[in-house]
């Protein structure tokens, strides 16, 4: 294929495989065999007018040119394209008509000048691989994950992203997520829903990424995790449950928990350390669980009815009643039992009596 491309450039012509000069049965067979249009590396500033039919093209390669845009009309004619490669150009935007590519599975727009992706990309519901590395993306469409359920690989490294879409947790077919070299401040909630995710790289977000969500430890299929060169001081205890993890890097973080020497020792050492923290936390919760209930039980009435003061328990140790100390009234006179009887539940909640007439 590369030899054919070199020959095209040498003669100054643009041909797609299956569109060579000549005719006859051999050309007809070749046309239906390849279905690829390769226009890569031609130093094109614009795409020349194409008179050939594009409806049967399954692969279009426009990479390594100087294209600033792709005409809407060309994209709209690529009804059966499966692979669209436009990497290493000068494009600042993608045509909205990209949403017409209902059979598109692989889209490579890396190495351009894109600041955003069109929202119509959500209409490419057959998309399995999206490569948008080395652009200037500041955000991705918020609802991207709600529509692209079949996406398996999402690569957005070397951009200016401060966050991933909140809908990322709906990309349940995702196998690999590469978001390194951005400005991520946090990872989206609901990561635990990505049950098929095997590779996650969020390294080199430097001072921006300070913590990882608890859900990262619930990624049951995760095998490779790179969080190096961030500002993470503690790994979530849930990472002790990553039993399938075989490759992990946290170099360049100010880790305190677990200590870096534990992390560098081995994966098993890190998992053991974090698992022990989980067990310790659960044990402490069980020991404290009864205390608030007892206090609420005994203080329900007295907190609202008795005069403020230092709490004291009267009665036996098991069924004691919390009561406030007596407070001094009128210059030191101790409140009498008769006065306290005015605050008794019977008096306060009994039906009101008519006052005697004078």
TrEMBL record:
Organism (species): Eragrostis curvula (weeping love grass)
Function in brief: Leucine-rich repeat protein that likely mediates protein interactions, possibly in the context of signal transduction.
InterPro entries in alphabetical order: Leu-rich_rpt, Leu-rich_rpt_typical-subtyp, LRR_dom_sf, LRR_domain-containing
PROSITE patterns, alphabetized: LRR (PS51450)
Protein name: Plant intracellular Ras-group-related LRR protein 1
UniProt region (Disordered), positions on chain: 1-33
Keywords, alphabetical: Leucine-rich repeat, Repeat
Gene3D superfamilies registered for this protein in UniProt: Ribonuclease Inhibitor
Bias-annotated ranges (Gly residues): 15-24
């Amino acid at each position: 294929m590369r030899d054919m491309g070199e020959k095209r450039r040498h003669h100054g012509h643009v041909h797609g495989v299956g569109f060579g000069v000549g005719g006859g049965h051999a050309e007809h067979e070749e046309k239906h065999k390849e279905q690829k249009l390769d226009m890569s590396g031609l130093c094109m500033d614009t795409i020349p007018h194409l008179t050939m039919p594009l409806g049967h093209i399954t692969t279009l390669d426009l990479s390594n040119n100087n294209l600033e845009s792709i005409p809407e009309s060309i994209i709209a004619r690529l009804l059966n394209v499966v692979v669209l490669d436009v990497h290493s150009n000068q494009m600042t935007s993608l045509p909205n008509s990209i949403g017409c590519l209902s059979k598109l599975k692989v889209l490579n727009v890396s190495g351009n000048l894109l600041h955003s992706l069109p929202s119509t990309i959500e209409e490419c519901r057959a998309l399995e691989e999206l490569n948008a590395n080395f652009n200037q993306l500041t955000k991705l469409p918020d609802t991207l994950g709600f529509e692209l359920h079949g996406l398996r690989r999402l690569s957005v490294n070397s951009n200016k992203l401060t966050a991933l879409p909140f809908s990322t947790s709906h990309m349940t077919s995702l196998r690999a997520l590469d978001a390194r070299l951005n400005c991520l401040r946090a990872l989206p909630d609901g990561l635990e829903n990505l049950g098929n995710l095997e590779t996650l790289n969020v390294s080199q977000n430097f001072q921006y990424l300070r913590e990882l969500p608890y859900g990262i430890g619930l990624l049951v299929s995760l095998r490779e995790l790179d969080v190096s060169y961030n500002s993470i001081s503690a790994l979530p205890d849930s990472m002790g449950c990553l039993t399938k993890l075989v490759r992990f890097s946290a170099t360049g973080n100010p880790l305190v928990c677990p200590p870096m020497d534990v992390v560098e020792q081995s994966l098993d050492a890190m998992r053991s350390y974090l698992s022990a923290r989980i067990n310790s936390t659960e044990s402490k919760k069980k020991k404290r669980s009864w205390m608030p209930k007892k206090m609420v039980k005994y203080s329900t009435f007295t907190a609202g009815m008795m005069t403020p003061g230092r709490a004291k328990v009267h009665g036996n140790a098991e069924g004691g009643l919390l009561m406030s100390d007596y407070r001094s009234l009128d210059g030191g006179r101790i409140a009498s039992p008769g006065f306290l009887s005015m605050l008794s539940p019977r008096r306060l909640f009994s039906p009101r009596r008519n006052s005697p007439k004078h």
